[in-house]
Specification:
Elements (H helix, E strand, L loop, with lengths): L2 E10 L3 H10 L5 E5 L7 E8 L2 E10 L4 H4 L2 E10 H16 L5 E2 L1 H8 L9 E2 L1 H8 L17 H5 L5 E7 H39 L1
Parallel strand pairs: 6-7
Antiparallel strand pairs: 1-2, 1-5, 2-3, 3-4, 5-8
Length: about 210
């Protein structure tokens, strides 16, 4: 069965809400997002829709190049899913994205989590609840408790998670951009070398 690597981005943005959650959980990196390639070209979560407004939240495709996230401390983990399971996760996310105006950030559910009261609200999620929800139909990534009680730490400590980076998110993004340019440059050089060799062989044949 073919496998696909997905990525989880855990961040600490330093906002008042993240500090409050850190204080409650006694853990850092309490915001989690999900992505499907190592360059993090599309990163999905539930959080602020506008960096400067903590009261408007919901489904977001996060801009990792923004100042708000570039300076965030982060940990990035890789996890292998079956290809068909990964396709289903992506489809689930796209369904939410298509109806994103109907979704909101689950502030009440977050309070319920802190009080250990199960509160399930229609079309309302917080970040770890979102990730647990879109992964709920996979065989290998399930939790023995309701999605509204799943924490970023639960996700981070799940069996099979592989830490690939820890540090400033902006440094990771910039390093991947440099690597991509180097790969492209190498490919161009290889193509040019191939064309030169081929041209020389053709010339020899013509001369003969």
């Amino acid at each position: 069965m073919q496998e696909k690597t997905i990525y989880f981005v855990f961040t600490n943005t330093g906002t008042y809400l993240s500090r409050l959650i850190n204080l409650y959980t006694r853990q850092s990196l309490n915001h989690v997002s999900i992505a499907f390639d190592e360059r993090l070209r599309e990163v999905y979560s539930f959080g602020r829709k506008k960096p400067n407004n903590p009261f408007i939240g919901g489904f977001v495709c996060e801009d990792i190049h923004s100042t708000f996230l570039q300076n965030a401390n982060c940990a990035i983990y890789a996890y292998k899913l079956k290809q068909d399971e990964c396709d289903n996760v992506i489809m689930h996310i796209k369904e939410i994205e298509a109806k994103q105006n109907m979704y909101k950030y689950n502030f009440i559910g977050l309070i319920g989590f802190m009080l250990q009261i199960e509160i399930n609200r229609k079309n309302a999620l917080f970040c770890s609840q979102f990730v647990a929800t879109v992964l709920s139909n996979t065989d290998s990534f399930r939790f023995p408790k309701p999605e509204c009680f799943v924490t970023p730490s639960d996700i981070r400590n799940h069996a099979g998670m592989n830490l690939v980076y820890h540090g400033r998110l902006g440094d990771y993004v910039n390093d991947r951009q440099v690597e991509s340019k180097l790969v492209t440059y190498t490919q161009i050089k290889q193509r040019k070398s191939f064309i030169i060799v081929l041209t020389k062989k053709v010339k020899r044949l013509v001369i003969r």
